[in-house]
Each structure stands twice: as structure tokens, then as C-alpha cells.
Design goal:
The two termini are about 30 Å apart. This protein is of the alpha+beta class and about 280 residues long. It contains 7 helices and 12 strands.
Length: about 280
């Protein structure tokens, strides 16, 4: 039940020539027929060990990172202030943790979100980091969350859309099936689950490396759900959410809207030339 609120990689190490590994001075070459003098023979030293390899795709280039408005100093903190002002203390309780994530909807469209875990709710907030305004926020009671699924994102074999990497799907209200009209509406919010992936700015700074950690977000959410079930159990439901590891299927076939949107990152607050949105 979701409710709408008020609106390094080190390339192959070439140590190069050094005084120790360079060829010996011809003037000091041993006389033919004699054994080399160990005092004058250069010690080649230990063999060089290559540095650790790092996936170059895990962090965006700096020229692309600076386009994200969320990285501007104080922007994320301002968003949290607005979210706190919108929270209902009687319904949500205190804010426990906040995360910068990317939400992937049932049509494979990406959207920049702040996921706020409170004592009794999960708030999924859409924030305009350019205009510094909270556009919308969905509240999901923690004791309605049925399962947390972590795994590889997959699509049907003949789908036009593309998706790789790991994700986290949150299910709630499992007793209610999504209506047919909602499943075929790319802008519908009447779907009893949502999917999260890591935000592209993960690794940009120490703070955002922490704020964008999907596994830590899952651990914090699972613990909060367990506490909520203990304090306010819902009759007829299991005693806590299931934690599963399996592939996450995004059931979209054509996906032209998401293909255009995701390639151009239309779901993020970005500086686009002389225009930002």
C-alpha cells in the first residue's frame, strides 16, 4: 500500500630502466672465460607485481559527474530538510537513514530518488536538485513490505530495452495484484513493488560512496522492516520480510520510452548545455 504525500586501474606496470636493472657498463664487463664477480654483478631485485585492476565503468568520468546537480555543495542536505518538513511524526516517526538511489519502474525507466527510512515508513522521494524542490513522495508502511529481492536485473529475451548489473526489488501488499491497466501504463504508481539500482554518482565523493551503497541500503531497510513487524504486526502476514537472492525480471518488451529516457538520463537533474533539468 503506497500513499501519495502532499504534493586505479593501474595499467600494466612498467618500472622502466633503473640503475639496478640497466645493462652493466661495457667497461665493467667480465673478461671472457672468467666467472662474474658477485660484488659487481647488478642485482635485478624482485619481479614487479602488477597493481590491482579496477572496472573503469564503476565511476563516471569527472567531466560527466559535475553535470549532476546533486553533487553541488549543500544540495543533498537541503533535500533532507524538505523531506523532514513533509514527514508526519505520528505516521512516520523519526528519520533513521537516507539514501541516494535510482528507481527503475515497471517500464524500465530510471528516476533519481531519495529513499528515506523512518521508524515506520519507507519514503521514496522525487526531488528536483536544480530547483531545490520536493516534487513528490510515496509512503510505504514498513510492516506492509513482504520481501526484499537482491539479484541480477534481467529482461525478456526479445526485449528492445537493455539493463545490466545488480538491483534491489522491494515488494509490498502481496495480496493485491497490479491492475492490467496499471501494468501497461508507464507512469502508473499503482504497482505493489519497485526496483532500485545504484546512483551514477556513487564514488564521486566519500559521502556519496556511502549514500549510494545499495547493499547497505538493503541491510538498513531489512532491519527497519523487522523492527516495524515487531512493534506493529499486521494480522495475516508473515513475521517479517523475506530476504531473497535471485534474478529480478523487468517485464517490458518494447520499451522505446525507457530506451530514449535512460540513454539521455532524463530521469536525473542534470546540466544539459545551457539548460538544466
Amino acid at each position: 500500500m503506497a500513499m501519495e504525500l502532499d504534493k586505479v586501474e593501474f595499467p600494466g606496470w612498467d618500472p622502466g630502466e633503473s640503475d639496478e636493472t640497466a645493462a652493466p657498463d661495457p667497461g665493467l664487463a667480465p673478461v671472457p672465460g672468467t666467472a662474474p664477480d658477485p660484488k659487481t654483478t647488478p642485482d635485478p631485485g624482485p619481479a614487479p607485481v602488477p597493481g590491482p585492476a579496477r572496472d573503469p565503468g564503476t565511476v563516471l568520468p569527472k567531466s560527466r559527474l559535475i553535470r549532476f546537480f546533486v553533487l553541488r555543495p549543500g544540495t543533498f542536505e537541503n533535500a533532507l530538510t524538505d523531506i523532514r518538513a513533509r514527514m508526519d511524526p505520528q505516521v512516520d516517526g523519526e528519520l533513521q537513514s537516507s539514501w541516494l538511489v535510482t528507481e527503475v519502474d515497471h517500464w524500465n525507466q530510471e528516476g533519481e530518488r531519495i529513499a528515506a527510512i523512518t521508524e515506520r515508513s519507507l519514503l521514496i522521494c522525487k526531488y528536483d536538485f536544480m530547483m531545490l524542490s520536493l516534487q513528490s513522495c510515496r509512503r510505504i508502511p514498513l510492516n506492509y513490505i513482504d520481501s526484499l529481492v537482491h539479484g541480477t536485473l534481467t529482461l525478456p529475451p526479445h526485449s528492445v530495452s537493455r539493463r545490466e548489473g545488480q538491483g534491489l526489488r522491494v515488494h509490498w501488499d502481496k495480496l493485491r495484484e497490479a491492475p492490467f491497466t496499471s501494468r501497461w501504463n508507464p507512469w502508473s504508481n499503482d504497482i505493489p513493488y519497485t526496483t532500485f539500482i545504484e546512483h551514477p554518482v556513487k564514488g564521486a565523493t566519500e559521502m556519496f560512496t556511502s549514500k549510494c551503497q545499495l547493499e547497505m541500503f538493503q541491510a538498513q531497510l531489512a532491519a527497519a522492516v523487522q523492527r516495524a513487524y515487531g512493534v506493529d504486526p499486521v494480522p495475516g502476514r508473515a513475521n517479517g520480510a523475506l530476504i531473497l537472492n535471485r534474478p529480478i525480471v523487468i517485464d517490458t518488451y518494447v520499451g522505446l520510452i525507457s530506451l530514449i529516457s535512460n540513454q539521455n538520463k532524463l530521469g536525473y537533474s542534470l546540466a544539459r548545455g545551457s539548460v538544466g533539468f
